[in-house]
Amino acid sequence: MRRNHEIDYKIYGEEMQCVEIELDPNETVIAESGSFMFMDNMIEMATVFGDASDRTEGFFGKLMTAGKRLLTGESLFMTTFTNQGGDKQRVTFAAPYAGKIVPLDLQQFGGKVICQKDAFLCAAKGVQIGIEFQRKLGTGLFGGEGFIMQKLEGDGFAFVHAGGFILERELRAGETLRVDTGCIVAFTQQVDYDIQFVKGIRNMVFGGEGLFYAVLRGPGKVWLQSLPVSRLAAKLSSYASSPGKEEGSILGGLGRMIDGV
């Protein structure tokens, strides 16, 4: 038996996805502020300070959870959507950038999954969104996500989003995977997360991949993204700062004059 609300869902789209949550009467889904897309008439939306799970806590408890959310780059507030009608109702949430939405049944992963900051989209009521501190100094300093990551705890469904294509890998005990630090979306709690220097001076200086790998060691499951939003933002920023830059163009500005740009 699940303690969290049991929700049904359907994911739409390919590159710009949204997830439709179907709620039975009195069921609730919690979501990040700004992720809402549309909903049926009998669903009531409410804004909650701090944690929107069903834990009972006083003002200082809510203040602490709100502060933890700030550390992971999220808003102080979350939104809840509750079906107040007598029939099934639906509410839909959209990802903030091109990529995929990943459904996570926390009950299948021991009740806890660790993910990158700001990856959380929505979840069944009862799922707790907290912070996971990196205990290793090197991992916190150079691991790409800093000392703080998000953790999702409970036994319901949670949904995270990531950029590009999502690849899932099941690691056996002792199996190691070296990953670009920005490509990690999430991993189960049994996975050991560490960092490793890139070997070779030329690789470090001219390889363009940074100084460190993220090292994931099994057993457990990991989710990887092909296009971290930081990489996309850096590429767009380089074009914005150099408006004359065009890949494969020999004529450059003359070519744009001919094209009428």
Question: What does this entry look like structurally?
Answer:
This protein is of the alpha+beta class and 261 residues long. 17% of the residues lie in helices and 41% in strands. It contains 5 helices and 19 strands. It has helices spanning 59-71, 137-142, 201-206, 229-241, 253-259; strands spanning 8-12, 18-23, 28-32, 36-39, 43-49, 77-83, 89-94, 99-105, 112-115, 120-124, 128-133, 148-153, 157-163, 166-171, 176-179, 184-188, 192-197, 212-217, 220-225. The strands form 4 sheets. Strands 5-6-3-10-13-8 form a 6-stranded antiparallel β-sheet. A 6-stranded antiparallel β-sheet has the order 11-12-9-16-19-14, with helices on one face.
Name the helicity range: 10-25%
Low-confidence stretches: 137-146, 202-208, 253-261
Helix count equals: 5
Q: Tally the beta strands.
A: 19
Shape: globular
CATH superfamily: Mitochondrial biogenesis AIM24
Report the radius of gyration as a whole number of Å.
Answer: 21 Å
Strand content: 35-45%
- Integer average pLDDT: 79
Count of all domains: 1
Global structural class: alpha+beta
The string of secondary-structure elements, in order, is EEEEEHEEEEEEHEEEEEEHEEHH
Could you tell me the CATH topology label.
Double-stranded beta-helix
- Termini separation: 62 Å
